[in-house]
Write a structure and sequence with these properties.
The protein is of the alpha/beta class. The chain has 3 domains: about 140 residues, Response regulator (Rossmann fold, 3-Layer(aba) Sandwich); about 160 residues, P-loop containing nucleotide triphosphate hydrolases (Rossmann fold, 3-Layer(aba) Sandwich); about 55 residues, Arc Repressor Mutant, subunit A (Orthogonal Bundle). About 45% of the residues lie in helices and about 15% in strands. It is built from 19 helices and 16 strands. Strands 2-1-3-6-7 form a 5-stranded parallel beta sheet, with helices on both faces. A 5-stranded parallel beta sheet has the order 9-10-13-8-14. About 5% of the residues have low confidence. Adenosine-5'-triphosphate binds next to helix 7 and helix 15. GO terms for molecular function: ATP binding; sequence-specific DNA binding.
């Protein structure tokens, strides 16, 4: 259940939303004027359960909600917000997003779209990405506190030294590392430590963008630009104005989009699809990849000029198996997190489990560790989590080779990965989207692995 503030002067519509959201378990407070909403926010400051999302109608009797949002953001209120507008005016939407709205939806409101946008806003709120109310001193959370573990190994210390070094500059950064090593986490740390930390952090998974829609997603489009472009759409570049745009799996972007991206970086303008009007943007770009982009550029799969423009600074995020003593620290962190999420009280992992963890190769890195620990905590009834709650494939991988080293280890890891993919594909009757979701990788990576392992 979430606590929501709805600012809406149309009483029929607000009653509808009130009951619809109530049925979905949310607690909604309706305000009909900006003044009332300001008072409500002021009165709720310091409440034990603060508002988690603001849902704002655009036009109100005493002003518009974009100005309202601008005002409260200046005062340090960071509750995620989205705008609902009957005016299909792209400028309103851009303006709203520049002033701290996460998204906008047009009226008449489609219930599924509403729930989706609300769900995204709640995720941000719960992940603490937009803290409920920020006082200037508390606004920036530093890497190394709460949700961000830096680690103590030499390789991790070097990683965060680079993060601190590059963060305050406006340089583009390429973050390279295996899947699940924490590249997005590193990008967020750079953003939080930068001068743009009060601006938006917008993350896009380029691997999940279709070739046709990538340009529209990044740069926006005009109504009628292509079949299905039913209204103007603001792209993520504009949404990230004043902040940081994080492009994950950048190697998956098509050639045409790479050209546009280069122009956006060089000239700081973008042109929405179907428009002739350039739009100025002020965005810092951070790109992540788990492939060797330089090799791709040499092969001609990635534009050389774009690679060099992005590569003003490169950061390598180490694989978990190379982080030595950090494993213990991450284990503790994920155990605490899982206990809190699942309402459990597992105090420790048994010696045998820790031994397996130490020998295992962690092909899925921190994401895999997090998932394995969550499962352990869920299945453990006692204070100590034991071997029986570990996935059998993990044990099998280790039993096949008592203590594998070097290339042998790689082969075992790959055969383990192949088996896992085959099993999941069978389970979901070869629905690749579902399989990718279950395996926690993007579809492009799944296709790549299917081809690599010649899975029929
Ligand atoms: N420094 C960190 N401290 C705590 N948790 C972390 C850290 N880095 C990563 N994680 C957790 O590990 C998981 C994977 O992190 P993230 O999504 O950043 O990896 P990634 O390398 O971007 O993944 P992909 O290659 O799939 O895009 C997430 O659940 C994240 O919360």
């Amino acid at each position: 259940m979430a606590k929501l503030l709805l600012l809406e002067d149309d009483s029929t519509f607000s009653k509808l939303l009130f009951s619809f959201l109530g049925k979905h378990g949310h607690q909604v407070k309706v305000c009909t004027t900006i003044q009332q909403a300001k008072e409500e926010l002021a009165n709720s400051k310091g409440d034990e359960s603060p508002y988690e999302v603001l849902m704002l109608d655009y036009r109100l009797p005493d002003g518009n909600s974009v100005d309202f949002l601008k005002g409260i953001r200046k005062e340090g209120v960071r509750i995620p917000a989205f705008i609902m507008t009957s005016f299909q005016d792209v400028r309103t939407a851009v303006n709203a997003m520049r002033n701290g709205a996460l998204d906008y939806i047009t009226k008449p409101v489609n219930p599924e779209e509403l729930l989706m946008v609300l769900g995204e806003a709640l995720k941000k709120s719960q992940a603490g990405e937009v803290p409920a109310v920020v006082s200037p001193a508390k606004g920036k959370s530093k890497p190394g506190t709460q949700d961000n573990i830096e680690g103590r190994s030499a390789i991790s210390r070097e990683l965060y030294e680079y993060v601190r070094l590059v963060a305050p500059t406006d340089m583009s950064v390429i973050i390279q590392g295996e899947s699940g090593t924490g590249k997005e986490h590193v990008a967020k740390s750079i953003h939080k430590l930068s001068k743009r930390s009060n601006g938006p952090f917008v993350a896009i998974d380029c691997g999940s963008l279709s070739k046709e829609l990538a340009a529209s997603e990044l740069f926006g489009h005009k109504k009628g630009a292509f079949t299905g472009a039913l209204q103007d759409k603001v792209g993520q570049f504009e949404a990230a104005h004043g902040g940081t745009l994080f492009l994950d799996e950048i190697g998956n972007l098509g050639y045409d989009v790479q050209v546009k991206l280069l122009r956006a970086l060089q000239e700081r303008i973008i042109v929405p699809v179907g428009s002739t009007q350039p739009v100025k943007v002020d965005v810092r770009l951070i790109a992540a990849t788990n492939e060797d982009l330089m090799a791709n550029a040499a092969k001609g799969d990635f534009r050389d000029d774009l690679y060099h423009r992005l590569n003003e600074f490169k950061i390598e995020v180490p694989a978990l198996r190379n982080r030595g003593e950090d494993l213990q620290i991450f284990v503790q962190h994920f155990v605490d997190k899982a206990n809190a999420e699942l309402d459990r009280n597992v105090q420790r992992l048994s010696k045998e489990v820790m031994e397996v963890f130490g020998r295992y190769d962690w092909p899925g890195n921190l994401r895999e560790l997090n998932n394995v620990i969550k499962r352990l905590i869920l299945l453990s009834k006692d204070e100590e989590a034991s071997l029986s709650a570990l996935p059998s494939e993990m044990i099998a991988a280790l039993e096949e080779a008592p203590k594998p080293t070097g290339s042998n280890l790689k082969a075992i890891q790959e055969s383990h990965e192949k088996e896992m993919i085959e099993r999941v594909l069978q389970e979901v009757r070869y629905n690749k989207s579902k399989a990718a979701k279950l395996l926690n990788i993007d579809r492009k990576t799944l296709y790549y692995k299917i081809e690599k392992y010649q899975i029929e």
